[in-house]
Every structure is written in structure tokens, then in C-alpha cells.
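Hello, quick one for you while I still have it in my head. Could you read through the record and tell me how the C-alpha cells relate to the sequence? No rush at all, and the record is pasted right below.
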Amino acid sequence: MAKAKGKKGKSESKQAKLAEKKQKQEKKADKKSKSKASKNNGDVDSDDDVDLDAVLEEMRLQQEQHHRITETVLDAPPPVSSYASFLANPVNSNQLLLFGGELYDGARASFFNKLYVYYIDKDEWRSITSPNAPLPRSSHAWCRGGNDSKSIYLFGGEFSSPKQGTFYHYSDFWKLDCSTKEWTRVETKGKSPPARSGHRLTYYKQYIILFGGFQETTGDHKYLGDVWIYDTTNFVWHTPSLPPAQLKPDPRSSFTFLPHDQGAVLYGGFSRVKVNPGAGKGGQQSGKKSKGGGYGAKMTKVVGMIHTDCFFLRVTPPPSDAPQGALPTVRWERRKKPANAPNPPRTGAAMAFHKGRGIMFGGVHDHEETEEDVDSDFFNQLFAWNIERNRFFPLGLRKPRTNNAGKKGGSGGGERGGRRGNRQANEEELLRSLAKLTAAGGGGGGGGDDDDDVMDIDLPGEQEPDEPPARKEFPVSNELPHARFNAQLAVQDDVLYIYGGIMDKGGRDVVFDDMYAIDLGKLDGCKEIFNRPLPDWIESEDEDDDDEDDDEEDHSDSEEEEDEGEDEEMEDGVEKNNSKPFTPSKRGRKTPASSAADAESTPSEREDGEAETAAAAAEEQEEVVDDGLPHPRPFESRRDFFQRTSNEWQEILMTNLRWKNIQPETLSIKEIKSKAFELSEEKWWDCREEITAMEDEQEAAGIGEVVSLADRAEGGGHGGGAARRR
């Protein structure tokens, strides 16, 4: 009886708190609506009433005062920014490039247009100034030039007034020489893509491919779904004509767009769509009212849409005998939804291309609750998307272990550092050797002096280069960086670099000022290159009032959760485990239209979504398809894999050459071995996630490295029984 009375008292207390909370929310909403009305009546900061064209023209004139390209060594990393572009230098494996971005500190927005270069070996940042460079911008897109491998191409982006009341979208097109760091504005013939931001670029042969993005006007977003292709040899843009009935991606921004050996692949994205609040599934996030206070039969609202579909853009170049300026044939082909895709779906997840895979990090999933507040889950998970197999694989960091391989009685688990360390120890040496072979291999007719079937990795008689200077030691963690969205990713020499990103904290977009590095081959930790304190946020009076209300609400919520937790513990007698693979946050949005809904697909995506999900689930259970190619073994390095299968890969290469009407005899032995290694390396990376899982399973079971008796016999090894017993 006493327990029942106690519960009744708590229930009445909760109802009183909820009524008080509802009253505060109504008061808060009324205050914000009055503030918004005063702004619409012209009571705004004079700094926001600016002529953006005049501002940009003044910036352009200031830019022209630089008479030459200069490179300045910085004492610290570049200023913090978001929505910048980050890319590995395609002509220098020791450099990363960073351009543009913006920073909003709560009062004013600043935009940047400096080019920064990070020298990996020196841990050194340099600033590049140029007399001819793109004007300040953010949310632009750039990519390497495909066949034009020495260049990076950049298109579009946005700029705004200090208070972000007026936006300007760029439609200019730029080319960066990655060797000299010189910018050139590309003047094209004929039509060109309209201005936009939030779009993506990728490359295929001599083409630069552009898709999507949005244009923002006062209080409205127009999402784009057009395709544009730039020919770097004929210097012309064109938009291919697609059949009206052809299935194609819905307009969107913030998607993944990666190169493919027959075109490009697209996955995911974000857009805002109009839905009827009472229309079932499409209207599940129906928390907003119309201006009149009700919904009405035909009222619609705008909600955020997270896309989860996948498309392949097939690009067929014109035949060799086609007339000058002939256009490629382009068509969209819808793919099944990727198997094992991140769940829940997320937007703002960054992805970088690496060896036929997309490396994905972070993202945010929003749950719309009220007109002003949105619950968000931020992620810091790492995935590899195998493009050809259309499957996601989670990537986890491994704990470093002591190398006990040489110690008597060392256990199988303790040998991890030894086996994996040995597997990686000669990777750089192998790649240097291949570079030497390629450089020395020129000439045809098979006229090399090395006719061994297996590559001579050690290259006897050649002197090793001088030892490089000792590199700076960085802190290494076995945890991935803090959860965030819209981080900048780049991959250089099989190392993933994560730069910056955004996370909500107390209703504010907090920009991370940090950079990390992860070796994708070893996954042996996350290296912290730098990590600076978060920038200060300048609060307005409205925000101060909101913070007080939020603090009171949070305090009320915490009391309710404590009461609920006590009841659950009393009833169940167990403590709940609330650990999650993400960081939850409750944030307020400037406008209702900007909040993302839980919807996972557009109506066109939902047609056969269930069938695709079932097919993906069935596919997920299948073993790796045997493609007839040599397969790497657990704990086998790229070097060991190629040495074991070198003859097979050379035969495969020569067969492929003959199919292309190229006689293998026209290549030297060294060229054949170098190209054969490239094929074996592609296969090694293609199987990396499955092989890593097998390695972990074997180590968990205490199984050591698997070596066949035939290989041991060929290697002249003895004492196999003793080795197996250990």
C-alpha cells in the first residue's frame, strides 16, 4: 500500500513538472516569434544589409595585389574552419591540401580562401598566397583531374553576409596545378553548370563529373539533380540528355560520389521534401502546424530526408573514330541498397576513395521532436564500403600488443605484434623497389636483364637511400576521434587523415579544431596530429534566455529520469546499460524546415525497399564469391602475397593485355612484374576486411599464422612439428 501511494505521488509530481515545462516552451516560442517578426520588419543588424557583389569585388582587387605565388611556413595549424575541402596531393605523396571553409562564432560568419599545404614528414603547415585564386567560400567541391593527374578542379561554393541573412552561390570553375600551387580560372565554351553549393565532383578518364547540390535563397532551399560533365581535353561543359523514363537519383546534397573504372557511383545524401502530415509513413514527423494553427486537409510541411539509395553512373566515351568533340554516352543505373549499411541512416558522413573502397567516418541522425528542438545522434564509427561488391564493412582499431614472437613459450595472442609487424615491416621497401623497377624498366621487347619469375625484392647491388630524419612522435589512442559530422577526409599512402568536423553542443554548432591519422593497413591506433581547444562562442541575449530555459528543462528531465530509473531498479532489480556507439545531443534549429526527419528514403526509393533489404540480408550471409583469382591468406603482407602468387598474376596480366590487343612482348620483364604487382595489390585491398576478420577469429582462438606444408617444403623449412605445437 505504501509503495502504491509513493508511485501515485511521483505521478502527480511528474504531471506538474510536465505542465510547467509545456508553459515554458510556449513562452519561449512566443518570444522567438516576436523576435523573428521584428527582424522581418527591418530591425536587423546593419552589417547584414550589405551588397555581396561589392564585397566580393573588393576582395578580388585585394587578391590581385599579390604579384607572385608565395609559400610561408606557419608556426601552428591553419585557423579552425568548417565546410572546407581536403585532399591528398596527387603529385606529391608527402602533402595534403586544404582550401576554403567558414567559421560562425555565434555572431558573425567568416569565409576563407587560403590554400594550405601539410607536409607529412615534417609535421609542418604552409600557407600559399597567389595573385589569382578563388574568392572566399565554403561548401564547394573539388577532385583530382583523372587523366590530368597533375591538377585539381574546383567548382562552386557559397559566401554569405556576416549575419548569414544573404547568401551568394558561385558558378566559377578553377584548376589548381598541384606542383606549382598556381590557380587558373577555367573559361569554358558554351553553357556551364548554374551556381550551387553542397554538390560533389569526381573524375573518370578525361572527364570531370558534377552532380547535385542546392541553391539557397531567403528561407528556401532548391535542391538540384542535374549531371554535368567537363571534358578536360576539349575544354567544354555539357549536360547529357537522359531518357525521361530513366530512373535517376532524386535531387540532393551531402552525398557520396566516388570514381569507378566505368564511370562513378553515388550513395546516400540529404534533401528537404514536402510531405502531408497525415499521410501515413511519409508524415510520421508531423509536429508542426500551419500559420493558422491547424493542419488542414491539404497542408504540407517540409522535413529533412536522409537518402539511402545507391546509383551507378555509366559513362561510355565516344569511339576512337568519332569526330572531334563527340560526347560520351551517359546513363543512370540503380543499384541495390548496400549490404550491411550503417544503421541508423545518417547524413554528414564523410567518405574518401581508397583502392576501390570508400572509407566512411562520422555522421549525424536527427529525430525531430518539436518545432524548435531536435534530438540528434552523432557517430564516430569507421566503415569501408567495397564499391564493386556494394557492401559495408566496419573498421575497428586494434590494441597494440607486445611482440613476443621471439620469446620462448609466447602465446598465439601475444604474437600479434610480431606477425602483423612482420607483415608490414617490408611494405615500404617493396613499394620503393617497385618504383625503382618502373623507373628503370622503360623500353620494350622484353629486354630486361632480370628473367626470374619472382620479383627480386631486395635488388642486390643497389644502395639504400640515406636514413630520413626522425619523425615527430604523436600521441596514439585505441579510440576513434570524437563523434562528429562533416569531417574532412583524405587518404595518402594508405593512411586516412581526419580533419575537423562539426558537432552540436547546447544548440550550437561546435567546430572541431583537430586532425588525426589512421593507417588503413594496420589499423593499429589513431594518431593525434594536433588538437586545439574549441573556439569561443559569442552569445546573444536571446541565446542567454534560451540557455536558462534549457538548463531548467534539462534539470527537470534529469529529475524525471532519476525517478524512472529508481522505479525500474526497484521493479527489475538490475541496472540498465545505456552505453551507445554514438553521442546524443538535443539541439535547437533556426527554422523548422532545417530539421532532419527520421525518414530513410524518398517515395521512389520505397517502392522496392523491402525487397532490396531482404536481398541484401541474404547476400550478407553468403561467403565471398570465388572469382578465380589468387586469394591472400591471413597475416600475409602485400609483399608475401605477391611473392607467393607472382607467376599467376603475370599470366593474368598477359591474358588481359592480349584481350586488349596488346602484345606482352612489347613490355619489359620489369614492367610486367610492376603491373602484375598492381593487380595483386588491388586484390589484397579488396579482401582486406574479410581477411582481417579471419585474423581476429584465429587470434581469439589462439591459432597462429597458417602456413601450408607445400610452402614450408618449398622454403626449405624444417621442424614444422615443433612450430605447429607452439
The chain has a mean pLDDT of 74.
